[in-house]
């Protein structure tokens, strides 16, 4: 059985993917870092104001779906990561485009190429269309 992700779950998942690709030095992420990423005012639509409780609840609901996990890294604070590579076997180009869709919603191919290129180089519109086709043809 599949279920539709909530807007909060979508934002949390998108932030995990984006931070892994764009700023890997800050990934996996603590709850506090993830709250800041979700509430970031640039590269997001809509802009939101989540608190720790909202983000923690989203992480807890993503875990049984196999989409988020607590990192095995040891430290003072628990850290979290996504599991899209393990669950769907996506490559970095697919992950970058998916992250942009999760963070901003529907966009043109040109917008996706420009915005996703900060996470993975996409040189042509045809390359973006190929990635989108791969994502659309994924098994559930």
SSE pattern, N- to C-terminal = HEHHEEHHHH
Q: Determine Rg (CA atoms, Å).
A: 15 Å
Unreliable stretches, pLDDT < 50, 5 or more residues?
A: none
Give the mean pLDDT: 94
Task: Describe, in plain words, how this protein is organized in 3D.
This protein is mainly α and 140 residues long. The protein has seven helices and three strands, in the order αβααββαααα. The protein has helices at residues 7-22, 31-38, 52-62, 84-88, 92-104, 109-116, 125-136, and strands spanning 29-30, 68-70, 79-82. A hairpin with an 8-residue loop joins strand 2 (68-70) and strand 3 (79-82). Helix 1 (7-22) packs across helix 3, helix 1 crosses helix 5 (92-104) and helix 5 packs across helix 7. The mean pLDDT is 94.
How would you summarize the topology of this molecule?
Elements: H1 7-22, E1 29-30, H2 31-38, H3 52-62, E2 68-70, E3 79-82, H4 84-88, H5 92-104, H6 109-116, H7 125-136
Antiparallel strand pairs: 1-3, 2-3
Describe, in short, the structure shown.
It contains 7 helices and 3 strands; from the N terminus they run H-E-H-H-E-E-H-H-H-H. It is mostly helical.
Attribute tags:
140 residues, globular
């Amino acid at each position: 059985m599949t279920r539709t992700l909530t807007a909060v779950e979508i934002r949390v998942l998108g932030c995990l993917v984006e931070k892994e690709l764009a700023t890997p030095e800050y990934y996996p992420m603590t709850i506090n870092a993830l709250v800041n990423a979700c509430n970031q005012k640039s590269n997001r639509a809509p802009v939101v104001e989540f608190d720790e409780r909202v983000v923690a609840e989203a992480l807890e609901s993503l875990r049984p779906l196999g989409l988020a996990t607590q990192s095995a890294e040891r430290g003072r604070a628990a850290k979290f990561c996504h599991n899209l590579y393990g669950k769907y076997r996506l490559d970095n180009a697919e992950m970058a485009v998916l992250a942009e869709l999760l963070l901003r919603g529907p966009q043109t191919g040109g917008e996706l190429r420009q915005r996703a290129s900060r996470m993975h180089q996409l040189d042509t519109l045809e390359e973006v269309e190929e990635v989108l086709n791969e994502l659309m043809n994924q098994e559930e």
